[in-house]
Amino acid sequence: MQARFCPQCGAPRGAGDRFCRGCGRDLSEAPPPDGVRSFPAAASDVPPRSVPPLLAIGVVLILLVVAVSGGLLVSSAMRPRPTAAPLAVVATPTALLALSPAPAPAAPSVAPYVLPPVSLPPLPAVTPASVASIKLVSARATAVGYQIMIAAQFKNLGPDLVALGDGAAYILYATDGSLITSGTFLLPLPQVIAAGQSAYYFDTYVVTEGSVSVGRVEVTPPRLYSATDLGPPITLSDVSVGSDAYGVTVDVKGIAINGGSDDLQNVVVGIIFFDRNGRPIGGAVDNVATPVIGGGQRRGFQMLAASVLPVGVLNMAASHKLIAYNWSPLP
Predict the structure, then answer these.
(1) Quick count: other Cβ atoms within 10 Å of Cβ 134?
(2) 234 contacts 258 by C-beta, under 8 angstroms
(3) Least trusted range by pLDDT, from 108-117, 128-137, 259-268, 276-285
(4) Are the CB atoms for 6 and 22 separated by under 8 Å?
(5) Are strands 192-193 and 162-164 parallel, antiparallel or unpaired?
(6) CA 283 to chain centre
(7) Which residue spans within the chain are E strands per DSSP?
(8) Count of C-beta atoms within a 10 Å radius of residue 75
(9) What is the 3-state secondary structure (H, E, C) of 25-67?
(10) Please, are residues 316 and 275 in contact by the beta-carbon 8 Å criterion?
């Protein structure tokens, strides 16, 4: 009876097996004698196991794919990578941006504008007169307490009427030649004078500290104009000249009467104080409280400008005179 086991490796075998399924031994050979056991041969003596052709082809293909992939990976790892150059940051100064300004837009073409003719209002009916037609008769400064009264008198040498404009000024010096003060006279008294008549200017300076020895006075004459008449007639009545309630300053009040038919817009009243020789010591000029006086109407007034005069002038003056007129602006 044929053994059911492989005599080489002892693996079980089938009845029709020609080769051992364990070691691949040819089972057609005669079995060894009884009592003699054969051991497996060395690995070098074992014939190679046959591999099916399709399996061998598949293994070869897998090995090729692995070899190619590994070669590519190794080649890629060994290949030197390019080094990226660092970006250069360039700071642009703001001054460089201003070197190329945007071109300015072209100015539109505009036709020149021509001013329309302007018609000026006519000037008052006065014409410039010669300065030689008046003369400075008196210019003096009188100290009364802590005040200095400055008075100037101009006389019309004729033969025409003269209207006095602005520009009359003065400079007051001390006896040692030093300057005390200077200023500009305001309103004349009156504004229009006939040949041989006089007009007066006044101002008052207050000494704030120390004592002043009054010297000479320099006077600049006003602008002169030739006038056609003396202006509307204005008379004064019920005039009162005295000291105020405290006995410190001068108080002047009364009534102004418009003797014409036209309304008077700028009625001016002034007072002049004279010494024994008829020379002006001081005075004041003021608009009345209600400057507009209709034709034939009467208005009361109280001179505010006179309230700056020291009451001592009433004792120094030998006489006084009041004058009223309607002031008109001159060119």
Answers:
(1) 21
(2) yes
(3) 108-117
(4) yes
(5) antiparallel
(6) 47
(7) 127-128, 134-144, 147-156, 162-164, 169-174, 179-184, 192-193, 198-206, 214-220, 224-226, 234-243, 250-258, 267-274, 280-287, 298-302, 319-326
(8) 9
(9) CECCCCCCCCCCCCCCCCCCCCCCCCCCHHHHHHHHHHHHHHH
(10) yes
Determine the pLDDT at residue 60. Answer: 63
Mean pLDDT lowest among 9-13, 130-134, 184-188, 252-256: 130-134
pLDDT in tens, 127-148: 555 445 889 999 999 988 888 9
Domains of the chain: 127-226 (2.60.40), 234-326 (2.60.40)
Cα–Cα separations (whole angstroms), residue 26 to 4, 8, 39: 14, 9, 15
CB 232: neighbour CB atoms within 10 A? 17
Model pTM?
0.59
Nearest in space to 269 (alpha carbons), one of 321, 328, 216, 204: 321
Residue with the bigger pLDDT between 250 and 114: it is 250
Q: Round to whole Å and give the CA distance between 237 and 217.
A: 35
Query: Which residues are CB-neighbours of 164 under 8 A, at least 6 positions away?
Result: 154, 188, 191, 192, 193, 199, 222, 223, 224, 225
Sequence-ordered list of residues with C-beta below 8 angstroms from that of 32, at least 6 positions apart, any chain: 7, 38
Please provide residue 270's backbone torsions phi and psi, each rounded to the nearest 5 degrees. -140, 160
pLDDT tens column, 87-142: 444 444 443 334 445 555 555 555 554 444 444 344 344 455 544 588 999 999 99
Q: Indicate the residue type of 192.
A: V
Query: Which whole-number Å values give the CA distances from 208 to 10, 22, 175, 182, in the listed order?
Result: 153, 147, 18, 15
